[in-house]
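Thread: "does anyone have the structure for this chain?"

Original post by V.I.:
We have the sequence but no experimental structure in hand. Need at least a predicted one for the grant figures.
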Amino acid sequence: MTDTFDTLALDLESQTQLLSRLQFITRFSANLIQVTGPEGAGKTWLSERYMEQWADAHVHALLACHTAQSDAQRRAILLRQIVKDGVFNEADPLIDSLTMMLDGGGCDALLVIDDAHRLTPGLLSELWALVQHAQHQANWRINVVLFALPGKLNKWLGQVSYGHEQKPLELEVSPLNEGEAEMFIDVLAVTQRIGGEKKKQWLAKLANQTVYPGTIMGKENQETGAVSKDKKKPAKNNKPFLMLILAVVLMILGAGAIWWVFPSQQDDSASEMVLPEGLKNLDDLLNEQEEQTITDPQTATQTGAQPSATNAGAGTDTIASPSMDNGAVTEDQATLPEDINGEGLTVGRSDEGQRVVVPDDVVDAIIDEQDAGGDGTDAVDEPLASEISEAVPAPAAPQASTSDTAQDEQTASEDQASTSANRAQDAREPGALPLVPQALLNVSAQRYALQLAALQSRADAVALIENYQLADRVQVYQTQRNNATWYMVLLGDYASVTEARRAELNLADNVRALQPFVKSFSQIHREINRANGQ
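Reply from O.Q.:
Generated one for you, C-alpha cells below.
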C-alpha cells in the first residue's frame, strides 16, 4: 500500500497474490473478471496498482463510475482511451464503435472499471458482448476487470452470460492476516509519527476482527489507503457566506435609495401635469360645484334631476357628479367619442343598397371566354349587359291615375300585337332571315358557336347578313330579354372553345371587326326556350 505523504509502497502477500492471478488470467485471452470486496478492502488502490505494475496490455482504459454519469458518458471515456482521436457516436454500442474505428485493425486493451456496481445492466451487457466478440477475433485481446462490492453484479452478469459456455470470473479481495495487519500499522506509525502506545491501542481494537486496510485506518469508505496527518476537520470557508450577506445588504440599501429618490420625482411630475383642453382638475370641479350650489341651489337640483334637452338632441353624453355636501349634480358637457359600430356589413345582413344579381347566362359567357384564353370582359356584350340591368329592380314609381293605367295597358297590347305580327312575317318570309331555332335545339349542348351580333331589329339583322355576305353561313334565333325581342346571329358549330377560336382567326377582317365571341349551345338552348316561354 501507499499513502499521500511519500511514495512508499507496501506489497502485502494477499494483495500480491490477487494481482498475480489477474495478470495470469488476462495474459492469453479476452475475459470479463469481477474483483469483489467490502468497503475499505482497497479495491481502488488495487485497480491502480494493477494497471501501473502488473498489466501487460498495450492500451489501458480506466473508468471510475459515479452516479451522475450516463451510459453515453461512460462509453465516451472508455473509447477515447482505447482509440486516440477516434470519431464515434456515444449512443452506439461499444462493439459497433470499436469495430468502426479500428476498421479491421488489431486491438490489445485492458478496461478497468472501479465502482462497477454502479453500471447499468445495458452497459454490462455491452461489455460482455465486447469480450465475446474479441474471443473470436485473431488480432483482438480485450480484458474487462470490474472492481465492485460483493453480490452487486452477480444477478446481471448471470443474465447476460446465460446460455454461454464461458462465464464471467470472480476474484475476492482477501482480508489481512495478523502479520499483514501489524506490518500495515508499523508503516502507518512511521509515516504519521505515532508512538508505541497508539500502536498497542490499534492492535487491541483489531483483535478477533476481519481486518482490511480501511479498517485499520478507521475510515469505512477508504479505498486508496491515503492517511491524513491532521485529524482535525478543516475549517470551513466562510467567505461565500459573508459575500452573500454583503450582497443582500447592498441590495437593501439600493432599494431604499431608489424609494427615497423616485417618489418625490413622481409627485413633482404629477403636480406639473398639464390637463388636456376641456378637462379640469378635480379640485376645480369641486370648487365650482360648491359655488353653484351656494348661489343657485334650486337650479343645481333641477339640473341634476333632469338632463338638458339640447344636449340629448345633440348626441353628447352627460356625466353627473353628486355633490359631497347636499347631493347637487353638475353636468360635464365634454363630447365623448362616437360609439363603435360592431355590426359589420357582411353577407346575410340587411343593408339599404341595391344588390346586382348576375344571371347564369352572364356567368356562362364569362366562363367560356376565360376557357378560350381571355379575361372574360369580351363576353359581357350589350345583350348580356341588358340582363344585368334586368336583374336590378327599378325604383318604385308613384301611384298612377286610372287614365294612365288604361293607357299603359293599351300600349302593352299594341306591343304584343306588333310582336305577333313580326313572328307572322317571319313565318311568311322564311328566306329573308335564316331563323332555325329547332335545328339549333338539335345540336348537342356540349358544342360551341361564334356569336357575331345581337340585334333588336329584324331589319338590322337582315342588313348585317347582306352587307357581310353571310346568308349561307349564319344561323339566327330569337330570344326575349328585358321584355324585348332580340335576334342572335351565330356562325359555325365547333366541338371545343379552342376550335371555335381557331375558326375566328380564319374569318374575314370585316367579320372579325364585329368582335365575335364563343358561345355554348347550352346557353343558346336556354335562350331559345326562354323565347318559347319555357
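V.I.: this helps a lot. The chain is about 45% helix and 15% strand.
O.Q.: and The mean pLDDT is 74.
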